[in-house]
Amino acid sequence: MQNKYFAVFVGALGYFVDLFDIVLFNIYRVDSLKELGLSEEGVMTEGSKILNAQLIGLLLGGIFFGVMGDKFGRKAALFATIFTYSVTTALCGLVTDVNTYLLLRLICGIALAGELGAAVTLVTEQFSPKNRGWATTILTAFGISGVILAAIIGHFLYWRHAYFLGAALGFALLFLRLRVKESDTYLQFKHLEHRGDFIKFFSSKKRLGKFLIFIALGMSVWIISGVLASFSYEISAFIGLERIPIATALIFSNTEVILVDFFWRAVSQLVKSIKKAIHFSLLSIIWLAAWLLVEIQTSKTTYC
């Protein structure tokens, strides 16, 4: 019983460090690339390339370490991801050219995706369906606060030192992971020959359809936090406003994500349906997006 709560604690802490490291480039994109000698235009174009490389890494890492977790165990996958992103994050603090920066963020993205997937899997496999929702909600909410901490630090700490701090947090997490027990579900099915077969996602239309739907559901969150907030420096200038620091945009956007995470979990418990809660949340996103577009257009017209 105690082990599963410790798994939630360590999983949440891991997600915290994970997201802390993921957004470091977003927060320090402008400062770090300017120090490497890039112009305002270069900060945007080269920064987009590096961010895309990190996103590609997240996609590849989620698949690779998901398969690794099924084949060799959740703990093995976690150790590999934490060690890899801790080392590459530390090296990001030593970069002197853009190409090396891009390569390190690609590798870091691969490892960071594996950490999240393995942590969520480890937690969900130790809770009953009745309590699984709240366990993952606590895990993700605490994890997202890592973005807020990174954004706060972004106002005060030199970018190279922030990467060193992220690496130190990763290595500290590695020692905590040693105390987490392997998933009982994995131990029960580790004898199966075809575990970790990613191709099975494509062998069933129903399974593939669900997989694609879940991806689509996560897109709106990433567009707000990963695109709009991460490029607030350029977007605010484009619509004629004073430049909004990326760290400030991330603090506000992710504080909202934490609050609504608990809110919609409570709604799903109240209406006794996760599907209904998802439908309500999607409708609210559509309404807010439409309102935001009108406000941006109004502001642009006013300032022009």
Characterise this structure.
The protein has 304 residues and is an all-alpha fold. It has 2 domains: 1-196, MFS general substrate transporter like domains (Growth Hormone, Chain: A); 203-304. Helices cover 82% and strands 0% of the residues. It is built from 12 helices and no strands. It has helices spanning 2-22, 24-35, 40-72, 74-92, 98-124, 129-154, 159-177, 184-189, 205-228, 232-238, 246-271, 274-303. α1 packs parallel to α6 (129-154), α2 runs antiparallel to α7 (159-177) and α11 (246-271) runs antiparallel to α12 (274-303). The longest helix has 33 residues, at 40-72. It is globular. It starts with a helix and ends with a helix.
Feature tags:
Growth Hormone, Chain: A, single chain, mainly alpha, 2 domains
Q: Can you describe this structure in just a few lines?
A:
By secondary structure, the protein is mostly helical. The protein contains 12 helices and no strands.
Itemize the secondary structure elements and their pairings:
Layout: H1 2-22, H2 24-35, H3 40-72, H4 74-92, H5 98-124, H6 129-154, H7 159-177, H8 184-189, H9 205-228, H10 232-238, H11 246-271, H12 274-303
Query: Tell me, what's the shape?
Result: globular
Mean model confidence by pLDDT: 79
What is the count of distinct domains? 2
Strand count, sense and barrel status of the largest sheet are: none
For this structure, what is the CATH homologous superfamily of the largest domain? MFS general substrate transporter like domains
- Helix segment count? 12
The CATH topology label of the largest domain is Growth Hormone, Chain: A
- The residue fraction in helices comes out at over 70%
Oligomeric state of the chains in view: single chain
Low-confidence stretches: none
